[in-house]
Design a protein that fits this description.
Strand order of the largest sheet: 3-4-5-6-7-8-9-10-11-12-13-14-15-16-17-18
InterPro entries: Porin_dom_sf, Porin_O/P
Helix content: 10-25%
Largest sheet: 16 strands, antiparallel, barrel
Low-confidence stretches: 1-24, 96-101
Number of helices: 5
Pfam families: Porin_O_P
CATH superfamily of one domain: Porin
Organism: Odoribacter splanchnicus (strain ATCC 29572 / DSM 20712 / CIP 104287 / JCM 15291 / NCTC 10825 / 1651/6)
Radius of gyration: 24 Å
CATH architecture of one domain: Beta Barrel
CATH class of one domain: Mainly Beta
Distance between the termini: 22 Å
Protein name: Phosphate-selective porin O and P
GO molecular function: porin activity
CATH topology of one domain: Porin
Mean pLDDT: 88
Order of helices and strands: HEEHEEEEEHHEEEEEEEEEEHE
Amino acid sequence: MLCCALFVGTSAWAKTEDGEAAAKSEPVSANEEELLNKILSKLPKVSGYIQTGYNYGDKNGDNRSSFQLKRMRVLLDKKISNTFDFRAQFECFSGSTDGGAYKKKVITVMDAFVSAHINKAINFRAGQYYLPLGFENYDISPATLETVDFSNICYRMVCRNAISSADLIDYGRDLGVMAYGDLLQNQEKGFSYLSYNLSLTNGYLPTLNDDNRCKDFVGRLTFRPVKQLSIMGSYNYGEYQGKVGDDVKKYLPMNRVIAGAWYFDPNGLDLRAEYGHIKSSEANVEEDGFYALAAYRFGKFLPVVRYDMYRDKTNKTSANNRDAYLVGCTYELIKNLKFQVNYIHSIYTDKVKDAGTRTGNGNSLQIMLLAKF
């Protein structure tokens, strides 16, 4: 289709009688224009963003000084009919380390799902999608986040399974089906008082078949007393394959709960707080997290502060046990191009310091440029 579009767009160029290229083009005929528009209408909408910059952290921060290409996302969206549409999203610069050995960057499938919109109250989704756990994983993307990075609730509780893939990031995605919708509509002010999500997924790593027969359930309710305020509660139950001592167990139960409130005025005040709890008695997992964020938009400036707490109650010497204080600002240079600066001061628990995992408080600085297309 792209070749046809290129052919139609260049077919009006002609050559002079002596063989030299003509310096002008003839007008495109109505039939050619109609054909070009028809071809373009079949193609999905392409969008995405690039986030790049510099990250510094002292030995008790993240111990690095490096330029980064933090994220590059490409999205394909297409409305198939009045009822159906699809989305595909790719992370083009995801990499990892394994035992200190560097693995090259690869293209990762983030989203690949089809949605069916019956009405505002009843919608369905099938494929690989972002789970409705918390605000940050479901309602916010890196392109719209007030800070450079998400909170530990998102990274540690949603984007990681503490039993089956404790050391692997799954980006908060999973394969399955979901029903969702908006109830109790306020037609005059254009919002719903209540929204729901009911999701059934593998409970394993994205793009892979499940490693046991149990499926993950996620339920979420969001209540809006006024348009700008959302009060959310989400719950996840699943059974996962993991080790207990030297034995491999296929069905270790685990619960995740994330609840929060968010007041958001796109031209003014932005306040958000979330609490998360994850627990599995059989797999000896218990973790708690909380963050509170405040920001205010002044024209092109968005100053922000955030407090982020995380506690791993079964691994008390882990460096994840800390209180992180963030101060930052985002400046929108032009439309779709913003400049972000974040400073983070981390205070670790006494048990972390006593174990030598961290010898003192940590400091990190992030300077990023995010361009959307």
